[in-house]
Amino acid sequence: MIDRLEAPCPVFDITTASAVLEGAFGLSGELLALHGERDLNYRVTDDGGRRFLLKFHNPADGLDVVEMQTAALSHIGRVDPTLPVCKVVPGRDGAPWLSATASDGRTSYVRLLTFLDGRHSQREELDDRALFGWGQTVARLGRALRGFFHPAAAYEIQWDIGRTSALRSRLSHVSGRVGEVTTEVVDRFDARVRPVIASLRAQVIHNDMSRENVLVDEGGMVIGITDFGDMTHAALVCDLAVAIADVLDGRTDSLEMAAPMVDGYNTMTPLEDEEARILADLVAARCATALVVTSSRKESHPATSSFPEGAWQFLQLIEAAGFDQVASRFAGYATRQASRHSLTHRTRTTAELLAARKSVLGPLTVSYDEPIHLVRGDGVFVFGSHGQQYLDAYNNVPVVGHCHPEVVRAVVEQTRQLNTNTRYLHEASVELAERLLQSASGGLDRVLFVNSGSEANDVAWRIARFATGQSGAVVTSYAYHGVTEATSSLSPEGWPPGFSPMHVRLLPPPFPTGRSEPDNGTAQHPQSAREIETAVEELSGSGFGAAAFFLDPAFTSDGILGPSNRWVQQAEAAFRASGGLFVADEVQAGYGRTGEGLWSIATSGVQPDVMTLGKPMGNGFPIAAVITRSDIADSFMEATDYFSTFGGNTVACAAGLAVLRVVEEEGLVSNARTVGAYLLRRLDEVAACHDSIGQVRGWGMLAGIDIVHDESRQADRHRADAIANRLKELGVLVGTTGPENNVLKIRPPLVFDQSNADLVADRLDMALSENRGRTSKTG
Ligand code: PMP
């Protein structure tokens, strides 16, 4: 093994060094010798006051090592430019190094580097915050070096703690207690670490983020990383182990203070289980290496090798606490972030939780007579607190499936990196907007990011009022467009009794004729046109004028009535004369649910002025958008200095991009079409056997099942409610919708497959059979 540490420092006096500086770099100034163990370093202050580091490498460092360090610095500078590492200053001839021969005849490579300010920290001064930051910096540097390679990194160096087994041949240099404990460390290493280390993440690592090599500010926060002389290709976790050993050595609280360092590291690069399991052994190995190396060197260089008291103290602490105990303690530090999160949720029984919910959240509706207490989701399934599995045939928000790993990864990674607002340049919001616009037609060229469907519609409403100068709206009779002051007025579904905003006119939706007449019969269309004309006339007669017509093209709240293409075409055409904007609310129907492209309105061929998106956009991460044209939006944005703090935040956009990627890669639009068609066929079969089904309507992966009284064929909301509750007990989640709330709403994640569709149909058949002949209360 090469011990490059054995070679003494090069010797260049100030006069010679100044001559090298002048000759090679064209600089002159004041030189100050700095402490250096292996290299000779001068701080240079040039005549203009700029500071540099003039480094004469140890003569033992060959060209390949110098070249590797130089390449690593420029790689880090490219990958993570804000990491505080030196930059290499090229010489007059453009070369990043030169060689110089000292008076003792030894030749050194010489480099000029930018100077890093800061000071070395004292052993005890670093508090939780500083250590957390130190751990983070170790992880960041590891990430910055992840894609770096250089052949010199393959050299074996004795400071690679992955090679601790090789210490065994030198254990004779340590005696007494030190010998016993270091032997135990090596034995443990061979038993616990050696068998797994080759399977761990490995790359080029800095390998020496000790107090000697890291500069801090007054508060102990890292502001400089120096000395890349121990860089090697090794297991990634060794970087953290070295830092823990060399930063916390000699403290009385070393074992506790490892926790913030691990926490900080974990925020950037979560440790894998196996890495966490061996972390303490690696820390011990680092301490043992220091003891063995210095003890063996003491024999050849007695003057320069002092006993590493700190490392010995650290090892003694570990030994006193028990190696196994410290190993599981450190592993616990690595995993506790995850458990800490789950511990923030108290565990109460379902009944206790329901009562507590009621007392703090009041009459907020909860689904099902016996509410379900969910703890986990996975794809098309959600799981209850007692392990019950439910097929989720209801939720459209997790459009690509609950907890889709791609979306989870995007959110977690982006959260670790940066989360900020759209006032700064960032790829994520721009790329997401570009992708959304690529998917839209008809000159839509502006995206405004917000946080919810309500907010999207609220902003769309403000834009419509601003652009048209009018203040009235047309919506369908039982529409839902949001929760805000403005959008609740556009949402007759939620109007309290007697509430009827003057500026809103209701348009009866298409007559529900089922899928057999998707255009709802020609007789309907003149009527829809006439009705909208009347609405528009009334609005202008009462001084409001029509600012916008908001339409959910799937009529989800109106009872799931799409596709009703001709109705939509004629209503839109009739509305155009008013000068108002046509807003397609794609919050429910968008993102591929209809199986004919991402946006449901496109099926009708009608070109909206505005589209609003929400619910599925981040697969559960809050993000929503208004898509419109620049000629409509720009003057509004300028006049109001439009901005939403969280709208378009970096993490939300990362989620949004991941969703679009998964929708595309997994072919979910065509899945919605084919599995959706299969589901509707299966539901038709069930309907053929049950009088209680009036109609099966639907479009792509969206189905509405009209539940009626057997004889009167009138809407039967109680029966619909009973069926939804029974289906829940049978492991299938559906909801209800429509003005009579008698329509079973089936709106699953788009990753539904045929077997899922079969389960819905079979369980529905079962629930309806059980219910057959029961008289439901009319109400
Ligand atoms: N528009 C439609 C068609 C909706 O279905 C909803 C939500 N159900 C909204 C708007 C409002 O979205 P959010 O709840 O995210 O505010």
Word description of this protein:
The chain has 779 residues and is an alpha+beta fold. The chain has 21 helices and 26 strands. A seven-stranded mixed β-sheet has the order 15-21-20-19-18-16-17, with helices on both faces. Strands 1, 2, 3, 4, 5 and 6 form a six-stranded antiparallel β-sheet that branches. Helix 7 (273-300) runs antiparallel to helix 9 (323-343), helix 12 packs across helix 18 (650-665) and helix 20 (717-729) packs across helix 21. The radius of gyration is 35 Å and the shape is elongated. The protein starts with 13 loop residues before the first helix and ends in an 8-residue tail after the last helix. The model is unreliable at 338-344 and 517-521 (pLDDT under 50). The structure holds 4'-deoxy-4'-aminopyridoxal-5'-phosphate (PMP). 4'-deoxy-4'-aminopyridoxal-5'-phosphate (PMP) binds at residues 452-454, 457, 480-483, 552, 556, 585, 587-588, 614-615.
